[in-house]
Design a protein that fits this description.
- The complex is a heterotrimer of chains A (351), B (557) and C (359).
- Chain A is of the alpha+beta class.
- Helices cover 27% and strands 33% of the residues of chain A.
- Chain A folds into two domains: 225 residues, P-loop containing nucleotide triphosphate hydrolases (Rossmann fold), CATH 3.40.50.300; 109 residues, OB fold (Dihydrolipoamide Acetyltransferase, E2P) (Beta Barrel).
- In chain A, helix 2 crosses helix 3 and helix 2 runs parallel beside helix 4.
- A two-stranded antiparallel sheet of chain B has the order 1-2.
- Chain B is mainly α and 557 residues long.
- In chain B, 58% of the residues are buried.
- The longest helix of chain C has 28 residues.
- Chain C has 359 residues and is an alpha/beta fold.
- The chains are: A alpha+beta (351), B mainly alpha (557), C alpha/beta (359).
- Chains in contact: A-B, B-C.
- The interface between B and C is large, with 77 and 85 residues.
């Protein structure tokens, strides 16, 4: 049984397709991350699901109920049982924390004592006990975020939508909130669609990832699947550091690399794809460096220290390759290093 | 937006219907009359327009009107905007006192303000008596009877309006934008000039336009200050034509006024272009104040000086005059009396009745205008109906129409069955509503534009219907703007004279009628001053009451 | 918070109800005269006529009280300045639905215009026979019910004995520069009448008005404003109707201040301006109402009403009522041909405005 299903959803803004024929299944209890660069249509998609926008075509179902279909909003947002946390949190400045969180409960007609009890539970869940009386402007960014989350949870939603909800937080807080959300999601077995432009965040939080570009759904799949076996050049670029190799007869460097990578191609979970024109993608961690000159040799031009690993820029003829090695592999810029390509994947070129 | 829900369609229909009834229909009737289509038969002619346009006096009055309205707009914006900046964005001391004084300046009816300035600066005014008489500093008295005199009085009368609007504009300004400018190397002055000012420019232009049109349509002040020396403005001509039974000429002149006003509106729309910034987010931070440092006290003294001149002195003059046996007499203990107040309340119970009626009419008209204002602003800013901009345009029309003309149009429109409201108090309320609408719509629209849509979306997602979103979220957030609009409208009704005089019915006298009758000869100007003192007292009392109730709710905005 | 809001709403409603209730309830006390609501609440067969009046309110109240003493509350009176009165009646006429039964304005020009438009009803009061012969005008379409004189008022403190003007022409002398005020003929119908009178005095030449402008005459919207400016010392002299001046002096006296104003009856003659009253043509009046209208006209020129009006400074129309205190018995008056003035009204106004227009 699906928790939610999007079928051939399209939405135009001023003549341009903001969302273009998108279909997507969401399973109960999963976190689905929708990733893509700014302006790829992911926020629009979320608003379509929420019912804040009406689709031009296609239908949206949640828990077996058709919410939008054939250019109509059949169920208005307030009747959908879908909650959303907005990018700027959208806390109502004239309400204190309690009133913000209790608002959905008030609408549902909960008694005052029941509201109080539920809000207390929620505040405990988001670890904001004792902050009931504060106003939004008196809270830090992270606290505002938690209040927004608590408010969304108060609905006990069928589906929780997170719209770039972590983007405004600093790195440490973002990590903490990410874990928090996962914990709460597990505890309440929530179904979440999380929209973000940050693929790291998406991989960290999601069970499955949907990659969007220019309004189109490019690839949907489990996290490692999308990461390991990108199907298009775009996905490969977007999901982590990849080196893309093209069959380019004019470039000797490209030809040499191609020859090395071609035999290492592994096929993904699905059937081998007939991509034309074919592009190979090699993840930065799939290039192995050696301090002795090997089959191919390049020059280290830059070293970026990440702590757990080290990233190098490796110059091979006129190409610069990105290589990631464990932290104990140490090269000095200027040093010559032999390298081998261990794995490659075939992807479809974007036009 | 989602498809037009049933009730939002209903809202639009209601807004259109009410605007048509209160504004479009009476004006249309008036215009038809001016070209000869009326109850007395049809004989289309545009001679009135030809006459009005070709009269050389018209040209002079158009020039005078533009000069006065332009100067008033600039002065009021500089004073009101500057004060607003000082009071919202700096750590100036004494803010509460200053805000109170500015509010009082706005309550004083413009007519009374003009009269009190004559009492001060007239040829035999107190100031001139001191300057040329007692102190002999100058040999020729300061003369207030000129266009600059109107500019002075109208600027003082209208700068609080600018102050109210600009205060909220300054408050809504995103501070990080200013910080970014500072970090980019701009000094404080340059930051204000290059970042802060352009950001609030739309608000400045919008309120400037309102002031401009409002000044163009004013007559009361001009009648006591510029008329005496033959400085005619367009409204002088309209009034004169009306007095001499020449409705077509009066209408044609009003149309000229409307056209001039529309011209200004056009320039405004063009200059605004796409400059619409929304810089209010849900993350309201407490405003950070510029430290004035060693300028703190001098700045406060400067503000105090401005307010003493614009508010305290006229107010003092009015209060003192209200206790004088004769207006303008030398002030001494022997000259004081309570007689003026007695006259107001004796007058066959009319005084008390007028005050009560005006409060009731004011509450009714201001509430109605605000409700319509909300409907119009909502339609314009939150729906996708075609031609919705026209709604706002129409609603702000009456600001450009002199009260007398509005009243005449109302008589024409509401005198014949089946719409016979003339002779009932309803026509007063309807016409007041029309007169209040521009202020209500502008101030609601301004604050609605400032709301981040996400706040409304969040509420819908939380399960609230559109109506509840509006009630629980939008309304409280636009609350301050709405309150401003309401107070402006209420005061407008309280101070209004020409509409009241032409449309009141026996038993439903208003403060305007009272002012007029005091003025005419029962009481004289000293009694007029007493009425003004009562208006100020009633308004301040009401505001205090509202504040006591309304406090603690709006904190944090 | 919720309770608090409810509190606000409740108290607002309460205030409103009290105000509205008080407003609606007040007429039931039946204490205030001239209250329409009260009359409507009363029986419908009762005759009720509507009157628009421009004039001193206290005098109107006195007249109303006296008239209604026996008849009950039959008058529905709206008081307003002569400007609004003209605006209101004219607008109603344009709309083809005149609401007033009787109008009582400040000068004959308005009546002549209304008569030309066929808006006045002819009623020849039996009392009219008692009118002074020169006031028998209007052929019953309007009836003169009192008159006043355009005269000069000056401020005693500001004007030395030698300077006191004795004639209209004194005012255009050099020494009166920037010391004069008068109402604007463009704004006030009475001022238009006065202007017509001044033209007559000066042999139909505009030079007098031009000289006034040269002397920097201050214009006001209404006549009593001009009077006020003299009494407050803003200007030293004005041309205005005598009754307003007398009332202003009286008012000062009443409030315990010696008035600084004094009156001059110019030697060329004072400008006589009559105040007419008229019944509006209206098919819709009941017989009872019709008779109230006529009774009121009769009453206004009765000696009782004339005595009341004389108290307020107006010159009675009857020889058997004493002229008011402060008015010499042998005033030399200049009478105008109102028909002619009315026909030239537009031109007079236009010329006046052209001369006065600041350069």
């Amino acid at each position: 049984m699906l928790q939610a299903q999007l079928l051939n959803i399209s939405k135009q803004f001023a003549g341009a397709e903001a969302v273009d024929n998108v279909s997507m299944d969401i399973f109960p209890g999963e976190i689905l991350a929708v990733v893509g660069p700014s302006g790829c249509g992911k926020t629009t998609l979320l608003q379509l699901v929420a019912g804040l926008l009406k689709p031009d075509r296609g239908s949206i179902q949640v828990a077996g109920r058709t919410l939008s279909a054939a250019g109509e909003v059949l169920v208005p947002p307030e009747k959908r049982g879908i909650a959303m946390v907005f990018q700027n949190y959208a806390l109502w400045p004239h309400y204190d924390v309690f009133a913000n969180i209790a608002y959905p409960l008030r609408i549902k007609g909960y008694s005052r004592s029941k509201q109080k009890q539920t809000v207390e539970e929620l505040l405990e869940a988001v670890r904001l006990k004792g902050m009931e009386g504060r106003y939004p402007h008196e809270l830090s960014g992270g606290e505002q975020q938690r209040v927004a989350l608590a408010r969304a949870l108060a609905l006990n939603p069928l589906l929780l939508l997170l719209d770039e909800s972590l983007s405004n937080l600093d790195a440490g807080l973002r990590k903490e909130m990410r874990e928090e959300i996962k914990r709460i999601q597990r505890e309440l077995s929530l179904t979440i669609i999380h929209v973000t432009h940050d693929q790291q965040e998406a991989m960290a939080i999601a069970d499955r990832i949907a990659v969007m570009n220019e309004g189109k759904m490019v690839q949907v799949g489990a996290v490692e699947e999308v990461y390991r076996f990108p199907r298009t050049e775009f996905t490969a670029r977007f999901m982590g550091d990849s080196n893309l190799l093209r069959l380019n007869k004019d470039s000797p460097a490209e030809m040499k690399l191609w020859e090395m990578a071609r035999p290492k191609v592994i096929e993904g979970g699905g059937q081998p794809l007939q991509h034309t024109p074919e592009i190979l993608t090699v993840r930065s961690e799939d290039i192995k460096l050696d301090d002795v000159p090997g089959q191919l040799t390049g020059e280290i031009v830059e070293r970026i220290y990440h702590g757990s690993n080290i990233e190098y820029r490796l110059k091979f003829m006129d190409r610069i390759l990105r290589v990631k090695t464990p932290a104990d592999k140490f090269f000095e810029p200027g040093q010559q290093a032999g390298f081998t390509i261990e794995k490659a994947t075939r992807v479809r070129a974007d036009n | 937006m989602i498809k037009h829900a049933y009730w939002s369609r209903l809202l639009v229909i209601a807004a259109v219907a009410i605007l048509s009834a209160t504004i479009l229909y009476p004006l249309l009737v008036l215009i038809l009359f001016s070209v000869g289509i009326g109850a007395n038969g049809i004989s289309v002619s545009i001679t009135a327009y030809q006459k009005a346009f070709t009269d050389p006096k018209t040209l002079v009055s158009i020039y005078n009107t533009f000069y006065v309205a332009g100067a008033v707009s600039i002065l009021a914006i500089l004073t009101g905007g500057g004060l607003a900046w000082m009071l919202t964005r700096t750590d100036l001391p004494g803010k509460r006192l200053f805000k109170g004084l500015i509010f009082i300046a706005y309550i004083i009816p413009s007519y009374v303000m003009a009269v009190s300035w004559i009492e001060l600066l007239g040829r035999n005014g107190y100031v001139n008596r001191l300057l040329c008489g007692t102190w002999k500093w100058i040999d020729k008295p300061i003369d207030i009877y000129n266009l600059e005199g109107i500019i002075l009085v109208m600027s003082i009368h209208l700068f609080p309006l600018v102050f109210i609007t600009m205060s909220s504009a300054w408050r809504m300004n995103d501070l990080s934008l200013e910080k970014a400018a500072r970090l980019s190397g701009a000094g404080p002055i340059k930051t204000i000039w290059t970042v802060s000012l352009p950001l609030i420019l739309p608000s400045v232009l919008s309120i400037g336009l309102l002031i401009f049109q409002h000044t163009m349509a004013c007559f009361g002040v001009a009648a006591v200050i510029a008329l005496p020396t033959g400085n005619y403005i367009l409204t002088t001509r309209i009034y004169s034509a009306l007095n001499h039974l020449n409705l077509p000429i009066a209408t044609a002149s009003s149309i000229i006024l409307l056209l001039c006003s529309g011209l200004v509106f056009g320039i405004y729309s063009l200059s605004l272009g796409k400059k619409k910034y929304i810089n209010v987010s849900s993350r309201s931070e407490p405003p950070e104040l510029h430290g004035l440092g060693k300028w703190r006290i001098p700045a406060a003294l400067a503000v105090l000086a401005v307010l003493v001149i614009t508010t305290v002195i006229p107010l003092g003059t009015i209060v003192v005059s209200s206790f004088l046996k004769q207006w303008g007499m030398d002030i001494s203990l022997a000259g004081l009396t309570l007689n003026n107040y007695q006259i107001i309340f004796a007058n066959g119970g009319m005084g008390l009745r007028a005050i009560r009626n005006s409060i009731v009419f004011g509450v009714a008209a201001a509430s109605a205008a605000c409700a319509i204002g909300v409907a119009v602003a909502w339609t314009v800013n939150r729906t996708a109906f075609k031609g919705r901009q026209l709604l706002e345009f129409t609603a702000t029309w009456p600001v450009a129409i002199p009260g007398t003309v509005l009243a005449v149009a109302a008589i024409l429109a509401w005198i014949n069955p089946p719409f016979k409201l003339y002779g009932t108090p309803w026509i007063l309320v309807i016409t007041y509503v029309a007169a209040c609408l521009p202020f209500a719509v502008r101030s609601v629209s301004g604050s609605l534009q400032g709301i981040d849509l996400e706040l409304e979306h969040a509420a819908r997602i939380s399960g609230a219907s559109r109506w509840r979103v509006f009630r629980d979220i939008s309304l409280p957030i636009i609350g301050p703007g709405l309150k401003n609009g309401w107070i402006m409208s209420f005061l407008m009704v309280l101070r209004e004279i020409p509409i009241s005089i032409l449309l009141y019915t026996a038993g439903f006298e208003t403060i305007g009628v009272l002012l007029f009758s005091m003025r005419s000869d029962t009481g004289g100007l000293e009694a007029v001053s007493a009425v003004a003192v009562i208006i100020i007292a009633v308004t301040l009392g009401g505001n205090l009451l509202l504040e006591r109730f309304g406090k603690s709710r709006m904190e944090g905005i | 918070m919720r309770i608090k809001r409810k509190g606000i709403v409740c108290s607002m409603i309460l205030i409103l109800v009290l105000l509205v209730g008080g407003c609606g309830g007040q007429p039931d006390n039946g204490s205030s005269p001239g209250n329409e609501a009260e009359k409507q609440a009363g029986s419908t067969e009762k005759a009720q006529i509507t009157m628009y009046i421009s004039g001193p309110e206290q005098m109107i109240a006195d007249l109303e009280k006296a008239f209604e003493k026996e008849r009950g509350d039959v008058l529905n009176i709206l008081t307003m300045g002569c400007g609004p009165l003209a605006q209101k009646i004219n607008t109603e006429a344009e709309a083809g639905n005149v609401q007033a039964d009787i109008i009582w304005g400040a000068e004959p020009i308005l009546y002549i215009q209304l008569q030309q438009k066929g808006l006045l009803e002819q009623y020849k009061s039996a009392e009219a026979a008692n009118l002074k012969s020169e006031l028998q005008m209007g052929d019953g379409y309007y009836t003169i019910c009192n008159s006043r004189f355009g005269v000069i008022a000056y401020n005693k403190e500001k004007v030395s004995k030698e300077e006191i003007p004795s004639s209209w022409h004194d005012l255009i002398k050099e020494n009166w520069k920037n010391r004069l005020a008068m109402a604007d003929a463009g704004q006030s119908a009475t001022a238009l009448a006065i202007t017509a009178g001044l033209l007559e005095v000066n042999g139909d030449s505009w030079s007098y008005i031009e000289d006034l402008k040269k002397n920097g005459v201050l214009l006001t919207k209404q006549n009593n404003e001009a009077i006020e400016r003299v009494s407050t010392g803003e200007v030293d002299a004005t041309i205005a109707p005598h009754d307003g001046i007398l009332r202003e002096i009286k008012k000062s006296k009443k409030s315990g201040v010696e008035s600084k104003m004094a009156l001059v009856w110019p030697k060329e003659g004072s400008l006589s301006i009559q105040r007419p009253i008229a019944i509006m043509a209206d098919a819709g009046r009941s017989e009872a109402e019709q008779s109230v209208c006529q009774e009121f006209i009769d009453y206004v020129i009765s000696s009782e009403a004339q005595t009341i009006m004389a108290k307020y400074g107006f010159i009675p129309v009857r020889a058997d009522v004493a002229i008011p205190e402060g008015v010499p018995s042998n005033v030399k008056s200049i009478n105008l041909d109102w028909q002619q003035v009315a026909s030239q009204g537009k031109e007079i106004r236009s010329n006046f405005e052209k001369i006065m227009l600041a350069q």
